[in-house]
Each structure stands twice: as C-alpha cells, then as structure tokens.
Specification:
Blueprint lengths: L7 H31 L13 H7 L5 H5 L6 E2 L11 E2 L14 H5 L19 E4 L14 H5 L7 E7 L6 E7 L9 H5 L7 E4 L21 H5 L6 E2 L10 E2 L2 H4 L3
Antiparallel strand pairs: 1-2, 3-6, 4-5, 7-8
Amino acid sequence: MSKPKTTRREFLTRVGQGAAMAATGGLIWAYLLQQQVQAKPNALRPPGASDEQDFNAKCIKCGLCVRACPYDTLSLATAGETVPIGTPYFTAREIPCYMCPEIPCKNACPTGALNPALEDIDEARMGLAVIDIENCLSWQGLRCEICHRECPLTDQAITVEHNPRKLSKHAMFVPIVNSDHCTGCGVCERACPTDEAAIRVVPAALVQGRIGSHYRLGWTVDTPVTQDFKPGSTTLEDRSGPGAPAMGLDYLNEGGL
C-alpha cells in the first residue's frame, strides 16, 4: 500500500510550524541570555563558595549540593529570577543554612565550586549579617536580642553592647555583628520577629568597604616604630608665626594645640 502524497498545503503548514517553533525557541534563548547578563551578584551561595565569578565558572549546575542538603535550604535558580539559572542559592528568611558540621553540600560538589578544603563550617563565609538600626527592636529600646540568642556562634558573630539612654536610667542592649566571625548562615534573619527582617544577610562585597593599604593604623601594629614613638619627638612648625612653640605629630591624642 503506497503512502499518501503530501499536498502543497500540508507542506507549507509544516514549514510554517517549524519556523514558528524556531522563532519561539530563539526568543526564549535570547531571554535566557539577557537574564544571565542582568543577573545580580546578591545570591547567598552554599558553604565553601568563592567569589561569584569563580563560582559561576566552576559550577556545572548539577544540583547535587541541593539534593545533599538535609534541610532543603538550597534551591536551583529558575528562569525569571535574578540569579544565574541552574545555580544553587538559598533565601535566609525562608530556610537558612543550619551549619551542618559534615558540610554535605560541599562534599557532594564534583567540581570544587564549593571549596573542598573547607573543613570547619564555622569558617564558611556565605554572606554578612547587616542590622537595620532604624527598625531593629533592640536599637529602638525594646528587649529583643533574638538574633543574638539564635546565632550559632553566640557572643562571637553577634554580641550585645550595653548603651545608656539619654533620658532614662535603663540601658539599651543592642546587637552588634562582628564580620570576623559571621558565617552568613542567615539563622538570625530567619529568627528576627519584625514583619520585614531588621537583620539581613547579604554578600559581604555589597556592604563592606576597604580602607586601602596606603593608610597605616599604627595602633594595630606592634612594631618598634609605634612603640618607640614619643610625643614631640618630631615637630611641626606652628604656622601662626616664628618663635611659637612646636607641636608634636601626635598632638591630637595628647591634647596639643
């Protein structure tokens, strides 16, 4: 039995369908490429992730770290999000990183995008907690300190300082984030009781400045130069006129004129 011949109309219809599918695929691909270009480096990555550029270069979007997480903290970015598609990230307000000592997500990574040398979860730096003091209950004079109590590194990553009030005998107990110890796990953000979290974890590069190597903080360096310095040992001529007393270089700290 011979096959029926394809009519001209059917041929043109199939050609049109193929062209429409190709055009649709091209539009989708162009959208995905545009999304990648516009993706913002504000995603919180799993423990052991390096800087965003290096991480994206090494991550093969396999999802093994997501599957290994016992708390369902990690998700793979999908189309329409401001995170490169297919890469793992987490939203601290929803499910933070609960700091597994075994670091199963890092162990599952096959490419080294999550640093295999990371052995201590307390050494992870997923982000940095930042406090909005205008909306933090403690900074407004209420006793809260939930972020301090919930922090896995209590009295290290978050400490509490006692500040006197101007018009009251009662002190304010305010949380302070210490960047040297904050892992960026997001437990504090998840626990914050305000409608919108008054403490949030963001990539450290977005909020931390850099002093610069040309500034010398002498009081932080124990060297013969700082230890042997004596106020007045080097002088500056007073610009008010000849014969005026000279000033020591450290006059700001010594009460000089």
